[in-house]
Amino acid sequence: MSKLLEIALGLVTGIGGFLEAGSLATSAQAGAAFGFQLVWAIVLGTICIAFLVEMAGRLAAVSKHTLPDAMRERFGIRFFTVPLVAVVLVSFLVLASEIGGVSLALQLATGVRFQWWAPVVAVAVWLLLWAHNFSLVEKGAALLGLVTLVFIVGAFKLHTPLNEIGTNLLPSLPHQDGARYWFTAVSIIGASVSPYLFYFYSAGAIEDHWDESYLRVNRLIAGLGMGFGGSIAVAVLACAAMVFHSRGIQIDRYEQIPLLLAQPLGRWGFILFVASLGIACFGAALEIALQIAYLIAQGFGWKWGENFKPREAARFSLIYTVVIFLAGLVIFTGIDPLKLTIFSMALTALSLPVTVVPLLILMNDPRYLGDNGNHWIANAAVLFISVLACIVAIVAIPLQLMGGS
Asked: Which long-range contacts (CB under 8 A, 24 or more apart) does 369-373 make?
């Protein structure tokens, strides 16, 4: 019964963890600009993150190591600083975009400009972590995050043609605006494969004292949780394709995105969109701030854990305090949260080989996994998607920055 509960909570958390500011914004922009043509990018990202989450959980359950701890032990502190810097940088930008997402949800609800909400949101995130209430908040935010299922309802109400989704499950060349097409594609993959998801997952498995008896539970949570999350992202893209692309309208501002649900569901669609954006981004902000603190503390062997009070793990608490307030400051400057979100997702895709290859090496090391090492299919799938996303990002990001076509 306890493992069934773990599966249920894991699936709910997986859905909530997958769809946040990055997946919502990139999927909406993709649908508005290219119709159903980029469904394949969501599928690739979902496959990759499902494999990575399963690997991170398996590593923790079998070796009793978190991912940063195993990387530092296996490769040494000098090598470890490379993925450490990459993950902290992209995670910080994603954290700022999540705080921006919550702030924009509050702007939509109140009319007060988003940058004035940024300090309030940052303080709320920090207080919940500082007050030692993260476990309750995580589960509460995950359950509330099920409101994002409303995008599937919206796609159904808009009579989304399923054959359009089916015919775009495989990659295709763009019909127009190639630079933006590929930039959007890598942003979608980056949003789906954010390193914070699998780094955070490995820490959670250790804190929950997983052992090898949880390997089947781990597979179910990773596969079904990420799969459901990916399905919601496809629904967001479908709503955007039906509402915006059919009218030739591009999404340039977050304020446009509520129309995804306002058209099929009326006023309740607007309310549910605001709730979805705020809840999903707030839950992600909690997880990312904690994950950055996990990563640094685990990598340098400091005391860490959500069950420690701030004075019991002072350096761990200081890390999430600093990153939360710096991320809030970024949004307070008035930077466009949508542009920040899209660009941070593209940078995430660019960094994937640095964050993924060390994990693959660990997953094939019998000293850590014994007989539970990776199958060649998992190695090939993750390596192919990560390298492909990185190569496309190397080409697409400069073209997008230069306004190429």
From this structure: 369/58, 369/59, 369/62, 369/63, 370/62, 372/58, 372/62, 372/212, 372/215
